[in-house]
Design goal:
The complex is a heterodimer of chains A (about 240) and B (about 110).
Chain A (H helix, E strand, L loop, with lengths): L1 E9 L10 E9 L5 H12 L18 E4 L2 E4 L13 E5 L6 E3 L2 E2 L2 H9 L19 H8 L15 H5 L5 H12 L7 H8 L13 H5 L6 H13 L4
Parallel strand pairs in A: 1-5
Antiparallel strand pairs in A: 1-2, 3-4, 3-5, 6-7
Chain B lengths: L6 H28 L4 H10 L3 H29 L6 H24 L1
Helix pairs in contact in B: 1-3, 3-4
The chains are: A alpha+beta (about 240), B mainly alpha (about 110).
Chain lengths: ~240, ~110
């Protein structure tokens, strides 16, 4: 067992007296523990007022995305033994989103951007009696883009997004790829105009923070580059 | 709020800084050259730029040009040729090539 010093960002916007601050907790942990385990121990045993989101604790739901030691990741996948110094952990909320309390951020804006790219199948032909068929090759084309768990790690790690909150962001653009490159979809003409703006794909400066942050190892920048290619090769 | 700087992030930061440096340079360059309307004026101005310190600065300017140009090529490959899949290797290639060309230019200028 090791003693871990966990510095946690604390802020409650409803309490005017308290400014954002860091609070340090000392937790006994196994070197194989995840940061989420530490947060649980703090909340259950030391300070019940700490607020953070989590659900599955197995890297599927994407609720516990937060900034740990300066980089976005899922707390449930952040294994202590993978840190250079596992005895000093700093936990902050996802950057650039409004804070509801402590590590809980307001994802309203994040999901609004999702809606803007129309993340659903658009197909004007009447539904067939069975499903709409897709070849394995066509499915392969969108496979990686379907791994996304919408944890918001990518969009909140993107410097273009910090600077310009109107930028659609990597998550929404990845979703846009997923439908625009779906062989069953016919909605590209409806979707493409929001991509071809200052706040669409052209705001991506290929910094690759999103790729580093993605807990599902999706190469988001590659998908955005395919959208860029699609835009410039349009025929009128 | 600080965020970890990954390898690709440094490529971006260097690209932006070199871009800013080049913008600053071109403005100074245009300003200095715009007033030189005849050969003696031009030659006396160029005499100033033979100062060793300014020659070294010129060499540094070359490194900025080379990095910005090569990384521009990297971004082009990322956007058009699946370069996003091997951006780190591309950045390493850009840095190595930049250093080689910088050294080569140093040899041409000073030896």
């Amino acid at each position: 067992m090791i003693q871990v010093k966990v510095k946690v960002y604390r802020f409650n916007p409803e309490n005017d007296q308290q400014k954002p601050r860091f609070e340090t907790y000392t937790v006994e942990a196994d070197p194989k523990d995840k940061v989420l385990d530490l947060l649980h121990r703090i909340k259950w045993e030391q300070d019940g007022t700490l607020a953070f989101r989590r659900s599955c604790a197995h890297g599927i739901c994407g609720s516990c995305a937060m900034k740990i030691n300066g980089a976005n990741m899922l707390a449930c996948e952040a294994n202590l033994k993978n840190f250079k110094d596992p005895t000093n952990i700093i936990v902050e909320p996802l950057q650039s989103l409004p804070i509801i309390k402590d590590l809980v951020v307001d994802l309203k804006d994040f999901f609004k951007k999702y809606e803007i790219v129309k993340p659903y199948l658009i197909n004007k032909t009447p539904p067939p009696t069975k499903e709409r068929f897709q070849s394995p090759e066509d499915r392969q084309l969108i496979d990686e883009a379907t791994w996304c768990i919408q944890c918001a790690s990518c969009s909140t790690s993107c410097p273009s997004n910090w600077k310009n909150p109107n930028f659609l962001g990597p998550a929404a653009l990845l979703k846009s790829y997923r439908y625009n490159f779906d062989s069953r979809d016919e909605g590209t003409a409806e979707r493409i105009h929001v991509l071809d703006t200052n706040d669409g794909v052209w705001r991506c400066h290929t910094i690759f923070n999103c790729v580093e942050a993605c807990p599902k190892d999706i190469n988001i920048t590659w998908h955005i580059s395919q959208l860029k290619k699609k835009l410039v090769s349009r025929e009128y | 709020m600080r965020y970890v700087k990954h390898y690709g992030t440094w490529g971006y930061i260097l690209h932006r800084l070199s871009g800013l440096a080049l913008t600053g340079y071109i403005l100074i360059h245009i300003y200095l050259v715009s007033g030189l309307h005849n050969r003696p004026a031009w030659q006396s101005e160029m005499e100033i730029f033979r100062h060793p310190l300014l020659v070294v600065l010129e060499w540094c300017l070359f490194s900025v040009v080379v990095y910005h140009a090569l990384n521009g090529l990297r971004i082009f490959i990322i956007d058009y040729f699946n370069g996003a899949r091997y951006q780190k290797q591309l950045l390493s290639a850009v840095l190595v090539l930049s250093v080689i060309l910088f050294a080569a230019m140093g040899a041409v200028m000073f030896i």
